């Protein structure tokens, strides 16, 4: 029978399988057109658009930071229009995700989802049972501890491919961060 292949089987070398799946997904998605990224707040429309600031995101893959995934998933589930701003070079002191909604800015130290729920009048957790809320937390933790670890390991082992995937000119990025502005 054709049983679905498990994504992660720790006894059968799950990390290697997970990394292989990541590489396969990267190769498949590299051939597709990258989604457009926004450089500034879009004021051409009357609808409210949430700007989601993320770091370390390849144009073809979602962020592997559990906080970014949580906010992105919440925005999609709440059917809130949003645009992603990709910050390829993270400066010290910069923490992500960050959300802009009009003139308001919600940072990572605050509870972004609570503030968005109040501001947009959309509480997705209202109908959830305590078990479902616990499952939501467990899924975010699983992503952070398994997929995130495998992604970091792959990044450390394949730095050349990583720089190509993130389309990062290392010389220019380092020169920009070291050179004084003025």
UniProtKB/TrEMBL annotation:
<dbReference type="InterPro" id="IPR012336">
    <property type="entry name" value="Thioredoxin-like_fold"/>
</dbReference>
<dbReference type="GO" id="GO:0005737">
    <property type="term" value="C:cytoplasm"/>
</dbReference>
<feature type="domain" description="Thioredoxin-like fold">
    <location>
        <begin position="67"/>
        <end position="157"/>
    </location>
</feature>
<dbReference type="Pfam" id="PF17172">
    <property type="entry name" value="GST_N_4"/>
</dbReference>
<dbReference type="InterPro" id="IPR050931">
    <property type="entry name" value="Mito_Protein_Transport_Metaxin"/>
</dbReference>
<protein>
    <submittedName>
        <fullName>Failed axon connections</fullName>
    </submittedName>
</protein>
């Amino acid at each position: 029978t054709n049983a679905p292949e498990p994504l992660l089987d720790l006894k059968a070398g799950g990390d290697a399988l997970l990394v292989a799946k990541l590489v396969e997904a990267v190769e498949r998605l590299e051939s597709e057109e990258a989604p457009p990224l926004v450089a500034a707040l879009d004021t051409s429309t009357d609808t409210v658009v949430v700007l989601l600031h993320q770091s370390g995101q390849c144009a073809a893959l979602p962020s592997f930071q559990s906080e970014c995934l949580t906010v992105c998933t919440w925005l999609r589930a709440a059917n809130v229009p949003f645009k992603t701003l990709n910050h390829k070079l993270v400066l010290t002191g910069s923490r992500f995700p960050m959300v802009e909604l009009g003139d308001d800015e919600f940072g990572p130290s605050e509870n972004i989802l609570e503030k968005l729920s109040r501001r947009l009048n959309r509480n997705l957790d209202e109908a959830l049972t305590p078990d479902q809320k616990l499952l939501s937390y467990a899924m975010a933790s699983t992503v952070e501890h398994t997929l995130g670890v495998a992604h970091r390991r792959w990044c450390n082992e394949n730095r050349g491919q990583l720089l190509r995937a993130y389309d990062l000119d290392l010389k220019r990025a380092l020169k920009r961060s070291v050179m004084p502005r003025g």
